[in-house]
Structures are given as C-alpha cells and as structure tokens.
C-alpha cells in the first residue's frame, strides 16, 4: 500500500516535472470551456495562476508532507489556492465554478499521467491519489472563497455603518444624529461611540437623536435608544429624541415602553428650539438624577 | 502571575497552522490568582494589557476590563477567592479574548436570578454578573451548589 | 484642619466647594476610606458643593458606581451637592451597557462646567471679587 502510494506520488511528480506546460495549457482550456459564460478571469491570468500552482504542487509533492496535508500544509501551495479562490470571489464568480476550476486540474493531471504509463494498476493508484490531493484543494478553495466573500460583506457593512450615522453640529453646543434605518446592537455601539466623542470634542450640552428615518420602534430599538440616552447623560449632557411620528408613538404606547424619563419632541425643529433653551439655561445642570 | 487553576491548552491544529500562516505568535493562556483586593487591581492591569495585545478598540478594551473586574470581584467576594485565566481564541474573521474565572465558593443556586439582578441598581456587591454578560459576546456559567463556579466570557474583535 | 489624608487622594477646598478626583489605582478599601474622609471634610468644613473629577478613570465597574451613588446620597444628607465631571466616552458607553445609570448622580462634561454648575463662573473679574461673591 505504502509503496504503491509512494510510486503514484512519484508518478504524478514526474508528470509535473516533464509536462508542466502541457498540463497548465490543458487546465486553462478546460476552465475556459466550462465557464463558457466568461467568469471574469482572463486567459493570461488563468495561465499565470496555473503555472504558480503547478510549480508549488510539484514542490509540495517532493516534500515530505502526507498526501492529505500537501495542500493545506505547504505554504506556497496553500497560497496559490488562496489566490485563485480570492480572485474569483472578488470577481463575483460562483463558488461552484470556483471549485470546478480546481477539480478540472484532476483531468489535466490524469491525462498527463496516462501519457506516461499504460499500466492499469499504476493508473488506478495515481487516480486515487490525484483525487485525494485535489479534494483537499477543492475544500480549501471553497473555504477561502467563503472567507473572501465574507470579508467583502464585512467591509461593506462597516462602511455602511459609518456613513449611516453622521453626527452634525446644529447650534453652539447642540449636536444631532439623524438615524436612518433600524437600530440594532452593532449600530447602537457605533452611534454611541460617534456621538459621545463629538460631545466631548464640542463640549455639547444637548444631543438630539432624530428618529424620523427609523421605520419601526420595537422593544429592542427602544432599549437601544434608552442606552444611548443614558450614556449621553453620564457624560454630563442632555438628550432629546425627535421625529417620533404618530404611528410610532402609538406603537411605543401599545408596547408599554416607558420613555417618560426622556425628553421627546415631534420634529427636529421643536427639538432644536428645546435644545437652545436648555443651553441658554444654567450650564451643566444635567445629570441622570436631575429633575426639571 | 501565579499558576493557580488549570489552563487547558486547547489549540486546534488548524488554528495553529492559520496563526503560523499569518505570522502570529501563538499566545499562551495565563492565569492570575484572585485572592486579595490587590489581586483585583493586578487582574485589571493584566486584562487591559491583553486587550491591547489583541488589538481591541478603546471602547472594547473598556468593556472587557470592566467585565473582568465584575467577574473577578464576584469570585473574590462570593467565591472566597479564585483565579482568572486569559487566553486568545481565534475565529476565521475575528480575534478574541476569553476570560475564564473560577472559584471554589458555594456556587449559585439560581443562575437566572443572579444574571437578572442589579440591572438598574448597584444594590449590594456581586450583581455584576448580568452586566458582565451584556459587555461580552459569549457568556457561559457552570456552577454547582457547593461545587464552585466557573464563568467563561469571550469578546470578539472583527478583523 | 483635617487629619492627614488616609488615601493619598487630595481634597482641595475652593470657597465652599470641595474639589477632588478619582484615580485608577484606588482599590476597594481605599475607595471606602476616601468616601469617609470626604464626608468628614464636608461636615467639618460646611461645604455646599463637591466636584469629583473622574476624567482619569479608565473604568467604572459596579463597585465604583455604587460608591459614587452612595457618596452622592450621603453628601446630600450633609447638605452638599455632588457633581461628577469628565467621564470618558468609553466609560460612559460601558456603564450604559452594564445597565448602571448612576441614579441620582449629577454629571458634567468637564471640571469647568461642573464648577460652573456649582456656582463658580469664569469671569474677567479678578479672582478676589468672585470669591467675595461666594462668601456667605
């Protein structure tokens, strides 16, 4: 068993040593033929990819890693598979096409081995080994592909979070955050961070949170609003919530959410008028426990 | 500092390979004793340093140090002392910091109540459990009446 | 006027206001000693206001929060109004997430605004005159 495996490994390595160019050509052709719709990676890029991967594969096979860990354990080979998958992920190629691309290498490799030997046993052993090798490569490519897509999604949602929570200065010592969309935990954390830093920077006495653009207020959203208001008050500033539309006010009442400790106004204009009055009154008379 | 408590070396091979591939040194778990008020300060410093090392934002640093302070104080006041272990789990998309706080105290007989209490008031010591849970992403309590308590809490920082 | 500081935390007096600050390195016992020392000073010096600067505090856990709340209540019973000033944004966020609202504790953005709330105003007039106004 061991000897057959070692022989088969050497057989494949031999094919790579002598026919690397042909294998690479064939692999590129197979990929182009299968992704007829055009998958965003050009022929020359495919060829470059193939050369890099086949070179690393040969080095991997000549090394002493066991077959099942050649792809995952060999640094350069792992990198080559990663590059291949990430490039496809970024170009919007589907994961199926991506793993098929890796699988097509099986065919290209086996054809080369066939040209070298006609012995049935040897071909069978080489085929088993090729399958084992490239199945791990397929799994690895799928994993990297998913990583790549997730990274893009994460980056985009972070960017979205940043641009969707601007803090604007409306008046001397009065800031406002117009919220658009829903208020989940991650969003609340970003809002609090941006708002509190701006409060410190501008020595703002009043922060207005405008929820005109928030479609619904449920218990969770209300809790997140309360949390933000509490943080603002702990800093020593006051908080006004504006833009509570009638249907939302009704929902809040029906849910029995208690916002009575929070200053609320129907419109941003009303809130600004209130805020200016507050800043004109005695300074720094705010705090969680202050009754007014 | 002191090697009290066990620190399970549970590094998965895949993780180690990934770390090696990313050029990160595998950080080993470290355990600190929580047996005196001075220890509470020491633990806070250690956790702060660990959060910096994990590359946490200043707000995340504050969350984790505060949670550690609550948990360590719980172990000290209610558990009659114990230990806090810091380690660094990894996930595909995030680096984490995990606090494991153990004590050999009387245990908690009603975990839901222990978690719910002290939400609005700081009425009495040792009600920071629920608060600590809100500050961390993952939270787990293992307790047995008469058998001590182990709290495991992790916060992740998305890369 | 008072016994030597037991905690090493200085408590200064400006007119009828006591000004002090909290540091990170305060352990529980020192925090309690600080509280009793501050209450002693309020009583013996007849202070009407207390400004506690917490801008150096990197965390506030439930113990420190409770200390601040108790201190505020006790001071109020002794006739003094407490203002806690300069909480850092990450500390405020963490406290809010912990669910601690510091009920009853008045806060100010910084020491200056806290002092203003206690009746001290920045004024172009020489300090002596301001002082004169404040004297009872």
UniProtKB/TrEMBL annotation, chain A:
Keywords: Phosphoprotein
Key word Phosphoprotein present: yes
Protein's UniProt name: STAS domain-containing protein
Domain STAS residue range list: 164-275
One Pfam family recorded for the sequence: RsbRD_N
CDD domains named in the record: STAS_RsbR_RsbS_like
Keyword Chaperone attributed: no
TrEMBL record, chain B:
SUPFAM superfamilies per record: ATPase domain of HSP90 chaperone/DNA topoisomerase II/histidine kinase
Keyword flag Secreted: no
Residue stretches making up the Histidine kinase/HSP90-like ATPase domain: 59-159
GO molecular function annotation: ATP binding
SMART domains, sorted: HATPase_c
Pfam families: HATPase_c_2
Keywords: ATP-binding, Kinase, Nucleotide-binding, Serine/threonine-protein kinase, Transferase
Keyword Kinase: yes
Source domain of life: Bacteria
Name recorded for this polypeptide: ATP-binding protein
Organism of provenance: Streptomyces bugieae
Lineage: Bacteria, Bacillati, Actinomycetota, Actinomycetes, Kitasatosporales
Automatic annotation (TrEMBL), chain C:
STAS domain segment(s): 7-118
Entries under Pfam families matching the protein: STAS
Domain of life: Bacteria
SUPFAM superfamilies: SpoIIaa-like
PANTHER family, per the entry: RSBT ANTAGONIST PROTEIN RSBS, RSBT ANTAGONIST PROTEIN RSBS-RELATED
The name this protein goes by in its record: STAS domain-containing protein
Lineage: Bacteria, Bacillati, Actinomycetota, Actinomycetes, Kitasatosporales
